[in-house]
Write a structure and sequence with these properties.
This protein has two domains: 150 residues, no CATH class; 38 residues. Helices cover 68% and strands 3% of the residues. It contains eleven helices and two strands; from the N terminus they run βαααααααααβαα. The chain starts with a strand and ends with a helix.
């Protein structure tokens, strides 16, 4: 995160003001949704004077779950902010890569609507987008930006929770083994008396 972007408050405010059209069901290969995500992203690239999605990228923007594509739509709304549009030539390829490839894990935990309605999820989406664009919020150091992303990152928190649960299971198994060993030792001592 080397380059300064807009202030985070401006980005989260933009997400809070996301038009309802970006929250309509996206069209997927399996579902007859209302919004063609590939067309929305192509329009964003056109406005940014950036290269349009390739056939492979356009196909990626039509496949997957409605949850992932819903996040892509909200991400496209966020990244159509004038600050990003003004830097389209420089950021276009990275934005396209972000929208095509980086919402899968988040979509298993967070819905697009949450990224508009919930302040923590707005912050998470804004910070996640900035991270993948190698940007940081204006007024924050790289360290502050990384720390704050870590504190709101649903995917990272889920991984920590899973690892903690695994560690607890291992500890429980170990406690049970130790208790059985202690019981055998106690029985052995009792048997000698």
């Amino acid at each position: 995160m080397t380059t300064s972007a807009p202030e985070l408050a401006a980005l989260t405010r933009r997400l809070a003001e996301c038009p309802a059209e970006f929250l309509l069901p996206p069209r997927t290969e399996e579902e007859e949704g209302l919004v063609h995500v590939d067309a929305v992203v192509a329009d964003l690239m056109r406005v940014m004077n950036a290269r349009p999605p390739s056939e492979r990228q356009a196909a990626r923007l039509r496949e997957g779950t409605a949850d992932r594509l819903g996040l892509v739509l909200v991400g496209a709304w966020l990244l159509s902010d004038p600050w990003f549009v003004a830097r389209g030539v420089d950021l276009g390829a990275r934005i396209l890569n972000l929208l095509c490839n980086h919402f899968e894990d988040l979509s298993h935990l967070v819905k697009a609507r949450d990224c508009v309605a919930d302040p923590d999820r707005r912050e998470e989406l804004a910070r996640l987008c900035l991270k993948h664009l190698d940007l940081r919020p204006d007024g924050e150091s790289e360290r502050e930006a990384e720390d704050r992303l870590t504190s709101v990152d649903s995917v990272a928190q889920r991984k920590v929770a899973i690892e903690a649960a695994k560690a607890e299971r291992r500890a429980q198994v170990l406690r049970e083994k130790m208790a059985r060993k202690k019981a055998r030792e106690a029985a052995s001592v009792y048997g000698r008396e």
